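Chapter review: from sequence to fold.
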Amino acid sequence: MADPNADADLREATAAIDLGSNSFHLIVVRTNNGHLQIIDRLRESVRLGEGLTDDKRLDPIVAERALACLERFAQRLRPLPQENIRAVGTNTLRQIHPADDFIAQAEKALNHPIEIIAGREEARLVYLGVAHGLAAGENRRLVIDIGGGSTELIIGQGYTPHQRESLYMGCVSISRRFFADGKISAKSMREAELACAVQIRPVRNQFKEGGWSEAIGSSGTIKAIRNVVIQQGWSESGITRDSLETLANRLIKAGGVGKLDLKGLSDERKPVFTGGVAVLLALFRHIGIKQMQVSSEALREGLIYDMIGRSHHEDVRDRTIETLMSRYSIDEAQGVRVENTAMALFDQVKKAWQLNEPRYAAMLKWATRLHEIGLTVSHAQFHKHGGYLVENSDLSGFSRQEQKVLAALIRGHRRKFPSAVFDALPSEVITCTKQLCVLLRLSVLMHRARSSVTKPMARLEVVKNRVSLVFPDQWIEDHPLTQTELNQEAAYLESAGFILRFS
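The token string follows.
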């Protein structure tokens, strides 16, 4: 008999979905004093990476397999509130051509938005998950996560990552490149390791001499290697360099993927196992790892802890914005003036423009703080420089979609309204991002003089794309410069389909 309280329990739960290049993972957890209690876990070997064609489209058979998996995930997620769910895509989804419709199809199958995260953001989340699963301590750790298409390397202390890199090598991509015919030879293993060494070389000294005292691996690839070397009797605990060398030699001796007969190796893992061994072997040899312990936590647990942080007002994105403001010497006082005006205008129109979700206010706030970031490059066209910097920087906590929205707001905060920039965003966020940009533009305009003198707050009324600013009696007549600037702004907004009136 079904538990009548099951759905109620799930409504208090949190879920994370990791859409990797090899496997799709779903975990559903309850939190208790900061600790996770897993109440459901699903994993399917989709091998998304093997379906990526040379022109960065997804093979229809692989796409169908992935969408069917997401539909099954969606059934499990149905009782959960949308705000308690977070789904992220990694290397393969980062590479898919924008014209490919797969991501839109995937969001429909999952019935939830999918964030595409950059490699260094993936590394941060991996470290966050691994660190929470370790005993407390201040020793520096090297964490390695081998995915299907990329490998993340992180050095950190406690819960803080200090160095992060994402390398373009993974168990799926290396297996496809060097072992696609199913044959394993000393030559193909050597070539695979050398290809990985080329990827490692630019960061080799950084991680070899990083002062870490222990190496920890996460992900299915490293877990599978650990299981094999222990069950074969080549290691008593974790993965040693000798046991890894022995495993590589055994693979070469077998001569082919179909001939692998190793304790602890599942049939599902076999097609990508040799590529994973080549990646880890290169890391051991070139970074100087002698022994590695294995964590059961990884990206998906990191997602959960990141969500918990956001719900407790410990959003890493706020710290990222503060770091950028400091790094680029942004005028904080001006940012505060623009932010206060923007948020006051936002509160007046959020209901009419249906901007009630917290993410809208947060995005507008971040944009006000960073809108002058481009001044560090040049005053001429600084809004364009700012948009470029934000879109192409590694911003901890932000998905690629969020960075594009934030960059569009900064790019569009002055001069001609860049409609083409906004129209290139995902269709579901175009309208709301344009509306936020109107609020940002008006707020920046009101503080062009950079004066600390408090200005009267205008009343803002909106009906669809009709925007009306109402100032106190006689104020606009007494400030002809502002009146001239508002007339110019009305012309700019008209080209974007907004009608600005003021009195």
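Two observations follow directly from the output. The chain is about 50% helix and 15% strand. The chain has three domains: 13-116, 119-303, 315-453.
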